[in-house]
Design the sequence.
């Protein structure tokens, strides 16, 4: 079970890093699947992730191959503004952000030169961070409590000193700390 908890911790750290990165960069990955010009996509931007499919593309779109791209969000905003300034009715970056849940989209060039359609499922990035991080956080807090706050346990190696008559830990040699007696309530 420790290996599964470690995988959960790794996923929580990865999603937290993606969450922070998403406010500065657009991270996108895609892979082709059985249809021509069809891709399975995963993208992270502005605190959310979306998973979905897309068909077609825009001019200068990368070929239908595996790919990962990382672009600064400022450049993407500038590109959106440039396309709008040419006179193409193109949404702003805020309009493109799908609401949480499923969303279908379709963008067609005014002259019909290209089209881009697809379906996405968007979710907030704090959600996987919370889901994957809960179990490792609970396990870490239990480990710290058991290791450092349990009476009669060596604080260096965790050896049980309750039956040891000497003042030193037989495992690591650390002198055992004498526990102070707690005052009884009401005195």
Sequence:
């Amino acid at each position: 079970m420790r290996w599964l908890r470690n995988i959960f911790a790794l996923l929580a750290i990865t999603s937290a890093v993606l969450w922070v990165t998403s406010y500065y960069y657009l991270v996108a990955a895609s892979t082709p699947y059985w249809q021509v010009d069809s891709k399975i996509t995963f993208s992270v931007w502005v605190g959310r992730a979306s998973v979905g499919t897309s068909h077609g593309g825009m001019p200068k779109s990368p070929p239908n191959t595996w790919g990962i791209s990382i672009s600064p969000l400022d450049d993407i905003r500038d590109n959106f503004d440039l396309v709008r300034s040419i006179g193409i009715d193109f949404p702003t970056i805020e309009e493109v952000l799908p609401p949480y849940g499923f969303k279908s989209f379709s963008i067609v060039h005014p002259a019909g030169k290209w089209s881009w359609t697809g379906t996405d499922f968007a979710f907030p990035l704090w959600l996987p961070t919370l889901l994957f991080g809960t179990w490792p956080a609970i396990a870490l807090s239990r480990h710290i409590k058991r290791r450092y706050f349990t009476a009669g346990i060596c604080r260096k190696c965790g050896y049980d000193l309750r039956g040891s008559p000497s003042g030193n830990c037989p495992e690591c040699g650390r002198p055992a700390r004498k526990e102070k007696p707690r005052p009884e309530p009401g005195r």
